[in-house]
Specification:
Blueprint: E1 6-8, E2 11-13, E3 17-19, H1 29-37, E4 42-45, H2 66-80, E5 85-88, H3 96-105, E6 110-113, H4 121-124, E7 131-136, H5 139-153, E8 160-163, E9 169-170, H6 187-205, E10 211-214, H7 220-228, E11 233-236, H8 238-241, H9 250-258, E12 264-268, E13 274-278, H10 281-287, H11 312-320, H12 344-365
Parallel strand pairs: 3-11, 4-5, 5-6, 6-7, 7-8, 8-10, 10-11
Antiparallel strand pairs: 1-2, 9-13, 12-13
This protein binds flavin mononucleotide (FMN).
């Protein structure tokens, strides 16, 4: 059986895979355009921290710094592909509104937005045809967003991304829920809750709201299983880091290839959320309060530089550039399974082939056991 297309409004996406936005500077023009060229969704992360910002107040004009660099990446991606290009803009970013407005001006296809509640996103894109998709961690959050958007803006999401607790990067779950696998909510159960909400609003607004599920999706079989359970597509991050085209430095990718299961830890990020990362000396030092820094960026609404143990923007930028002594690497729970770096088109072909044969198998045996681990 063929994989179904992912339909988001008038966007017909042949491969129902969304390459998740990955900051800082992990998914930019090269990765996103390569994914889009294969018929899936390529996503540029707006978490950038430009080196050119001299005065954060000037960002509001969009004339310098993060916003202009972000615009450059969107233009570059669009030059390299005619496929679907999305952006991922975290609500926690200080320049959130300016970044959304820039994405609208540049006519991106989709804005994904999480790391907080994107409650005013419909207002910021009003009058444009850009699709908007909140990233949620539960049915409860999906309900809150749909309720607010319908009440205030008479609008439902064009799609919803469910990011489960096995994902890399920041996570919308408590430290308690993330302490071990047994206490983590299961992606399939979370999906059922989110589908209940989206189906209700779909019916009320006579509009399909596809749900894209991610976090721990590793193989084509995982993709087939979650689609069989009602997802319209998947979001994947970790596997796209280990591609030739990923925008991170080789040392970042090699940290993934070398990672063992016991290297994966949950940290308390200055963003104000837990995050999944790879243990290293920098994080050990940060835990002991040994990192000294001066903040001149104020890139996050949620970070207090006076109490934060380190500057996450500096740490992630250093890591993306291959300086892991002064930074660290976010990664998904399946990172230890990665053993090589491959071209994007080989990865996507492998996933699609596996998913299509798994569909046939699942159709025959209706096997619903969990494989998202
Ligand atoms: C290195 C890295 C950076 C990420 N950065 C972001 C980000 O800036 N914003 C965001 O919403 N999600 C971010 N994510 C989450 C991904 O978009 C995606 O949802 C997640 O990786 C899916 O889980 P998987 O890694 O198990 O496939 C990041 C993930 C990784 C691995």
């Amino acid at each position: 059986m063929k994989l179904p297309h992912l339909i988001i409004g008038n966007l017909d996406i042949p491969i129902p895979i969304v390459q998740g936005g990955m900051g800082i500077k992990i998914s930019l023009a090269k990765l996103s355009s390569s994914v889009a060229n294969c018929g899936a969704v390529g996503t540029i992360s707006a978490a950038i921290k430009s080196d050119h910002v001299k005065d954060r107040k000037n960002i509001a004009s969009g004339a310098e710094g993060d916003v202009s660099e972000f615009v450059g990446f969107i233009r570059e991606a669009k030059r390299l592909t005619t496929g679907v290009i999305a952006v991922n803009i975290m609500t926690a970013l200080t320049s959130y509104q300016q970044l959304v407005e820039a994405a609208v001006r540049e006519n991106v296809d989709i804005i994904f937005s999480g790391a907080g509640l994107p409650l005013n996103l419909p207002m910021l894109v009003e009058g444009s045809s850009v699709k908007i998709a909140p990233i949620v961690s539960s049915g409860r959050v999906a309900e809150l967003i749909c309720k607010t958007w319908t009440r205030k803006y008479n609008r439902v999401p064009d799609a919803v991304v469910l990011e489960g607790p096995m994902a890399g990067g920041h996570l919308g779950y408590s430290l308690d829920e993330l302490k071990d696998e047994a206490s983590m909510p299961k992606l399939e159960n979370l999906l059922a809750d989110v589908l209940e909400v989206t189906r209700k609003y779909s019916k009320e607004y006579n509009k399909t709201i596809p749900v894209i599920a991610g976090g721990g999706i590793y193989t084509g079989t995982d993709i087939a299983k979650i689609i069989k359970l009602g997802a319209s597509g998947v979001q994947m991050g970790t596997r796209f880091v280990c591609t030739d085209e990923c925008d991170a430095a080789d040392a970042f990718k090699q940290a993934y290839v070398k990672a063992k299961k016991e290297d994966i830890i949950i940290i308390n990020s200055p963003v104000g959320m837990p995050g999944r990362a790879l243990r290293n000396e920098f994080l050990e030092k940060a835990k002991k309060g040994e990192i000294k820094f001066n903040c001149s960026f104020l890139c996050l609404k949620t970070c207090n530089p006076k109490t934060s143990p380190y500057c996450i923007a500096n740490a992630l930028t250093n890591a993306a550039q291959g300086n892991l002594e002064e930074g660290f690497v976010f990664a998904g729970s399946n990172v230890y399974r990665v053993d090589k770096i491959v071209p994007v088109k080989d990865l996507i072909k492998e996933l699609v082939d596996e998913a299509e044969s798994a569909f046939n198998f699942l159709g025959r045996y209706n096997n619903e056991s969990s494989c998202f681990s």
